[in-house]
Structure formats: C-alpha cells, structure tokens
C-alpha cells in the first residue's frame, strides 16, 4: 500500500491489539468517531457514526420483531419504590445498580423513584390492568428505550451507566407457548448476529447462578471476541408465573377459571456494537460488515483538481446510490488521509477514481477486510459492487468462525482449564456436575465463568471438570466482558 509511508504516523495512533487489547478498543471507539465520553463518569455520547450503526442494527431487528407479531410500546422511565419491592428476587438482583430520584425540584419526594434498570415491573403492572380473558393472549409487546445501571467499572458500549436496548415482554396462556416464544426470540437474535453482524454465536441455557433475577430459565447467545474473552450478546428469559403471581396478572380461561399468565422477556443492547468492534476490528481500526455498514462504499477521487474527475465521481455516486449505500469524500484532504480515515471507520469498500481511470473507463476497488485491490470496468460496477459486498459479509463470518474454532478447547480438569486460559484464551468446553459449589470454585480459581449449557451437547467425559463426580452436562467456560 503506497500511502503507508507518508501516513504511517496516523496509523501508529492506535495501539496494536497484541500490545494492549483494552487500549486498542478504546482507541478504536474514539478514533472511528463512534463515541465521546459524557460528563458523568461511565456515560457515553454516541456520535453520528456510532448511532448510524445502531440504527441499522435496530432497523433489522425491529422488522423481525414486528414480523413475529409483536407491537412496540413505550413505558415510563420511573418506577416507584413500592412497586419495585413486589418481586423479591428481581429487586435483589438489581438493587446494587439502581439509580434513585429523591427530589422533584426543591421538594423531597414522599416515595423514591427508581430509574428503570429494566422494565419487567412496569409491564407487569400494566398487564394486570389490561389482561382479563384468554382472548387477550398472547400479549406480545416490545419497547425500544434507554435503561440505567449504576455500574462501577464502565467501558463504552460494553458496560455504561446508561445504554440503549430493546426489551420484549410477553404474556402467554401456558408454559409451552411461553417457552416457544423464549426460544423463537433467541433464534431471531442469533440470526441478526450471524447474518447481519457476521458474529457467530453459541446458543444455550444459563446456569442457575448466571440466570436473570426473577426468571425460571435464561437462554443466551454468546460470542467470542478477538482477545479470547466471551461476550453475552443477547438473552431471552422464561419468567414462569412468578411475576404474574406477584402482580396479579390473571386471565379467565375457556372454562371461566382464573389462571396466571406465563411470561417472557428478552433483550439486546448497544453492547452488540462492542461485539462488532472486537470480533472484526484490526490494527487499522474498525471493520463493519456490509449489511450493517452505514456507508458501504466510499468514493475517493484522485487528483480531483483535474478537470472532469469530480464530475465523474459524482456521476458514479448517483448511479450506485440505487443499489448500495455510497458516499463521496470530495474534501481537499489528501487521498492518503482519506484512505486511512475510511479504513479506520471500517467502510467495506473504497472506490478510487482518477484521471487515468476515467480515460480507461475503470475504477480501483479496495476491500477493507482483506486489503485486496482490484481494477473494475465502470460498466460492471453495478453488478460487481453488490457481489463484492456479499463476499466481504461472508468472509467476515467465516473468519470469525475460524477464530472461534481455533480458540475453543477442551478441559478435563481445572489444571487443563487454567492452562488453556493462559495459553490460548477462548471458550473451554468442560463437563459439569451441576453443583453451584463447583461453578463458584472454577470462577474463583481460574476467573472463568460458565457462559452457557449449549443446546448442542457433546459428551467429552463422564466426570465433572472440578470435583470429578458424575457429570452429564457440557458447559462452555470463558473469561467474559
Ligand atoms: Zn462438580
């Protein structure tokens, strides 16, 4: 790449991921213009480029949420303390992270208000008012909103005081219907991650220790980051009838008898942007999968002061606009600066066009994922570019799958687990007896947590990796964000 020499310094501004992965991450989120820090510790400002990525994720998922029969609603931001106390397990789980409003203007409130850390309780109170008969079921609601969790250690997108998400909340007549919903939405999440974000995920159930506060069971999609740490990328919970009993959400069945509804809740957050950064990014910055990329093709005119170059570049943009998300940088910055800038931002394809290209009726296309350059006739662009974008999309998923495979190991005992985490950090498959004591010991001694009990079970041994007793469950372990 001929522009490397002159602009080397610009590239050196990002810490190499091999040197310090955490610093690399921080450099990328800042230099790719995704976020800025808010004035309250742990809060973030999502800048236009970061927000555009979020909007694309949101639009894809929102369409799927609606296709599967859900309606969007909006719940209040505040929860009165008395209401919060109604479901004991739930409040105990969230209490350490709750932010409280104690004053309205100058006046102290009679009752403290909690800023929602999640909205189960608000939905439940509402459902108790509007659900009466079996004809009202299933009730399938979703909310796009912000929530607040007063986290002690924070990082942009991965853990921040306030984040954006969607939370689905549904009510069903029986367990079977509610479980179908729980697993259906987990599949929707997995599909969005793999087909759009090109992030491969493991699907499975959380252990009792790791499940959502107040849930009967929690299902999760787990992905593996470049540094070998896992990221919980979305969860779907079967809540049983616990909330319905606390809040009195009942319906009369076909025989006129009162029954409690079975509930679910499920959510994904702006964390997915963190996954995208840490799965696909490299030492030149972000790499955004084409299906989610706000700009799929960036046109960089070469020697744009020469007659006809900009006109031709704009013409190309207008003709490509129908098929792809395309933009042009006609600023007076040097092409080398622009190359670096759009590589940093992870734009999938760069299109270079200069006087010589115009003479030959061609352009240069450069792929962000492989760095490969190709000369393409202008007449073929309308078919070639969408093809290349699809290829990039596929390549990113394949690369991420390979990476995950290379970083998935087996362990028969704690020593092997520890060695694996030291030598080749990633997922470790190990058998577990089901005892909390073993799960806690593993975490204490190795720092790895149980990520999930995968749906696709294998029997790699008969005995628990920790205590050696009989074990019939395979669990994925990893250090996690
Ligand atoms: Zn055990």
TrEMBL record:
Q: Which GO cellular component term is one of those annotated?
A: aminoacyl-tRNA synthetase multienzyme complex
User: Where do the coiled-coil regions begin and end?
Assistant: 378-420
Output the Pfam families linked to this UniProt entry. HGTP_anticodon, ProRS-C_1, tRNA-synt_2b
Q: Which domain of life is it from?
A: Bacteria
Q: Which UniProt keywords apply?
A: Aminoacyl-tRNA synthetase, ATP-binding, Coiled coil, Cytoplasm, Ligase, Nucleotide-binding, Protein biosynthesis
Reactions catalysed according to its record: tRNA(Pro) + L-proline + ATP = L-prolyl-tRNA(Pro) + AMP + diphosphate
State any GO BP term from the record.
Answer: prolyl-tRNA aminoacylation
State whether keyword Coiled coil applies. Answer: yes
Where located?
A: Cytoplasm
What Gene3D superfamilies has UniProt attached to this entry? Anticodon-binding domain, Bira Bifunctional Protein, Domain 2, C-terminal domain of ProRS
- What EC number(s) are associated with this protein in UniProt? 6.1.1.15
Q: Which residues form the Aminoacyl-transfer RNA synthetases class-II family profile domain?
A: 41-289
Give GO MF terms, alphabetically. Answer: ATP binding; catalytic activity, acting on a protein; proline-tRNA ligase activity; transferase activity
So what family is this one in?
Belongs to the class-II aminoacyl-tRNA synthetase family. ProS type 3 subfamily.
Q: Domain comment text?
A: Consists of three domains: the N-terminal catalytic domain, the anticodon-binding domain and the C-terminal extension.
Q: What does this protein do?
A: Catalyzes the attachment of proline to tRNA(Pro) in a two-step reaction: proline is first activated by ATP to form Pro-AMP and then transferred to the acceptor end of tRNA(Pro).
Q: How does it assemble?
A: Homodimer.
Q: What is this protein called?
A: Proline--tRNA ligase
